[in-house]
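Practice problem: predict the structure.
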Amino acid sequence: MDYDNKLTKHIIKSILSILLLCQPALANNYYIDPIDGLDTNNGSVSAWQTLGKIGSSTFSAGDNIYLANNGTHSGYRLRLGQSGTAGNPITTSTYTIGGGTNTGFATIDGQNSLSQIVYSESKNYQTYKNLNIINGTGVTTDGVVLFRTCTSIIWDNCTIGTSSGGTQGLLIQGGTSSVVSNGTITGQSSEGLKVGTYGGAQNYGAIIQGMNITNNGSSGVLMFNVTDFSISTSTVLWNRGYANVFVQVEEAGYTTQNFSIASVTANYGGTGTINNGSGIAIAVNQTLESNGTITNGTVENCTTNFNKEYGVLVGWNSNNITLKNGVSNYNGRLGLVPGTPVYGNGIEMYAYHGIPDVGPNVLVEGYECAYNGTNGLGDGQGIRNDSNCGSCTIRYNYLHDNEGAGYSYSNTISESYPVEVYGNLIVNNGLEWDSNNSNWSSIVLHNIQGASTFNTLRFYNNVIDGGQFGIYIQSLHTGTPGDRYYNNIFINVPQYVFQDATANKLTREDYNIWQTIGTGTGYNGWTQGQGTNTLNVDPSFVDAITANYRLNWNSPAINLGTSTLQYFQDYYGNSAPYGVIDRGIHEFQGLAGAGRMTASGGVMTASGGVMTSQ
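Answer:
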């Protein structure tokens, strides 16, 4: 009996010990009141007065530091010298004196004389919430708020206001697992938010979400030499640097990799005196050329409108990049000085110094690129593959009403990676005339190089509606045949569907359908490579006027394409091929192999005596 009692007591004691070990750290609360506090107080029962007490005091994991919002905190920096622990951070936030009506954030004022107003170095598990930081100053290595080589810093629901000098708003150097969320950074003289290396140490695992970053002197967000980061559900507008959101390698030998940019609005980039300014830019610093890499990144569901140069730029040693389901409209329309060499393209893929260093494996899918242009001063193209961009796939995009071409492709050396362009709807482009007529075209090809061992450009299963020309080859095309144009449908082309200004006779088209208007015709300068299976007929769309480019049941495009291409889904999301592949962007879902007049399973319905596809 005594043994049983002793055993029971031992078990209870062990359980209590384990429970005590599992309890969160006991939190102490400290208060700073700039009006009624005194630094001779203990800070807990009675408030301190200045931020200087934070730097001269010792805090423990789980402690809370509350700054009163009844007045301005100034004269000292907020420098917290201790770390919290996982699950028990040291938290600095706002409190309201006496439950009064003042519910705003506590304000820390640098009075234009302090840099690094909030600063922590080599400390971990600190949280900052509901703070308002204003009037900082400093140089570009300072930051109004600076976290250096820290782990698990949370900066939440805070505002960083106007600064002077050349400083960033929030600078994170090195460290891991930082979270910046639900706040505002505006009016900084340099970048709004900059995350990168320090002393050779890269930053890992940064999360940026729910931010509003506007009207800063350089980029809104600059991520350089960073691994495993994400930017989401944020608004980044009116920043005057190279891009609203700039993903970069800034130092030789580094890699920026494994990142996601999702549901970000990045409009009105480049509003300063510089000649460039994109919504989102992904590129190694030009001066590094091949000595740096950006890889494995996704940009999804983002909006990049009204930027000075490009909506989205992918360039300079960037590979395995996916751009998906975004909108990139009205770029190049910021009231430019006449003659300013800006391009105004929706999406630009560009390599530097002739190095074939964009790609491999760049995908652009599901984008709308429209109304891009510079009122005649630049390209104004929907999507441009420019200067040696290999292994790019452009598919299921809606490219319309651009001043320049809907899609443009150029390279200056033999490219060993093919570019595939398929399933795109390209409508009413080439609205702005230029001296060589190329900007009147839906598709423009420049300086295309060919080789006997590969196909340079494969352009298939697209619909092109409008534009003075369908495809316009502008300049020199050398080598042996490599480019292929199959299964496309061209309508409402008033001049030439296939225009080759160089009469080089090297490209090949076949299995296309074209229908011109007025005096338009099929070929000019394209004296060889004309396909024997290309048709000059009405493709019989359901209703092209309302942008419904699905095929009617009696369309000559059904089951008459060539199936030698890798094409598994049409523009509308249907599986392809359904039987023999169709031409255009719609794979008619009739009974496979039964011809064009087969109705099956409700695929074709009768309405007013007219058979239509669904």
